[in-house]
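For the sake of transparency, this paper describes our internal protein records without simplification. The record that follows is passed on verbatim for readers who wish to inspect the format:
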Amino acid sequence: MAADVGTTAPDFTLPNQDREAVTLSAELAKGKPVVLAFFPAAFSSVCQKELCTFRDAARLGSLNNLSKAQVFGISVDTFFALKAFGAEQKLSFPLLSDFNKDVIRAYDVLNPDMVGLKGIAKRSVVVVSGDGRIAYREVLDDARNEPDYAKLNAALASL
């Protein structure tokens, strides 16, 4: 299933860092777009930098349109690891565990092999509009790079 801009976003239910079920369609029903920030691994330097950018941008207004959306970080880490990572980084948004890799497959962001780590998420950002359609998608081939925050901000501004 392709998860391209303009298509309906694949619905999912994943546990957050507190083992509570989070369902995309239920989040969209709250009236805000959703930002899915797929990241390769908790406690890695670039993932830490990216997710802290989302945390700080929401607080400082540097991505002023981020306040329009609900952000979710998604990785294949266990919810135990995500809980520790989120607490250590004081993240202000939920982290979701896609341990079984169903969602990264549905969104076509599965990295088959990143320097020996098999089946983790490619660093990617997907914006799902309130009507459930994918409004923006960026998939990075090199996990050492961060998303283009200006393009993400512009995509959110257009919603």
Remarks:
- The longest strand covers residues 70-75.
